[in-house]
Design brief:
rod-shaped; Lipocalin; mainly beta; single chain; disordered N terminus; Immunoglobulin-like
């Protein structure tokens, strides 16, 4: 059969198929090319080292991010306490103790995004603390960077406590004692400076000679959080 005859036979077959009510096969659509865009990659660094203290420690979050396709990358942060920020380097102070899930979202200009999660455990001063000697105890409440409470001691008696915690983990306390010179109520105040350690579960206080009244005992304290 000649080439022309073959072509004619094909045309006749197609006409017969249509005449018999048949439907010619639809052409297969071409497969779209796979997307060549890729999500950004990155990492998160946190400073300073050690446990952050609520109301005091100014944490610095630093993101390192890039896009495999060379696209511009935008960075946004969620700190897990309702606060947000944007940029490669951001600062944040957590107001309350707790464990926070910090999320960095790195997005490229095509809508691809990568989420990086960092867990941050924030310590606070609230609660009971016991001096290593076992005969002096502190009970604190904390509101932001302000600390107040009671110091209890068999030897020295009780004292009202107030003070503050500062970045990153420094602690300043004023202890006020009541006494009765000449049968009249009076007060004397003793001042201490110190800091919490990297765990946030122990603090050391050193007696401040220059600020304290002469009635103060010249004691230093090392107290550990009471493990309830």
């Amino acid at each position: 059969m000649t080439r022309n005859a073959i072509g004619l036979a094909a045309i006749v077959a197609a006409v017969c198929c249509l005449a018999c009510g048949g439907t010619p096969a639809a052409p297969t659509p071409p497969t779209p090319p796979a997307s060549s865009n890729h999500a950004p990659v990155g990492s998160v660094a946190l400073s300073p080292a050690g446990a952050p203290i609520a109301g005091a420690t100014a944490l610095t979050f630093t993101a390192t991010a890039s896009d495999p396709d060379g696209d511009a990358v935008s960075l946004s942060w969620q700190f897990g306490d309702g606060q947000t920020a944007s940029g490669a380097t951001v600062g944040h102070v957590f107001a309350e103790a707790g464990t926070y899930a910090v999320v960095l979202t790195a997005s490229d200009s095509h809508g691809e995004a990568t989420k990086l999660n960092t867990s941050v455990v924030v310590k606070g001063l609230a609660g009971d603390w016991l001096d290593i000697g076992g005969k002096v105890g502190f009970t604190f409440e904390q509101h932001g960077s302000n600390v107040e409470g009671i110091k209890a001691s068999e030897r020295e008696g009780n004292a009202a406590v107030r003070g503050s915690v500062q970045n990153p983990r420094s602690l300043s306390l004023e202890l006020t004692y009541a006494y009765y010179p000449s049968s009249q109520l009076d007060y004397y105040r003793c001042y201490y400076e110190g800091a919490l350690d990297d765990t946030g579960d122990q603090f050391r206080l050193t007696f401040n000679y220059k600020r304290s009244d002469r009635h103060c005992r010249k004691d230093n304290y090392t107290a550990t959080r009471h493990p309830y």
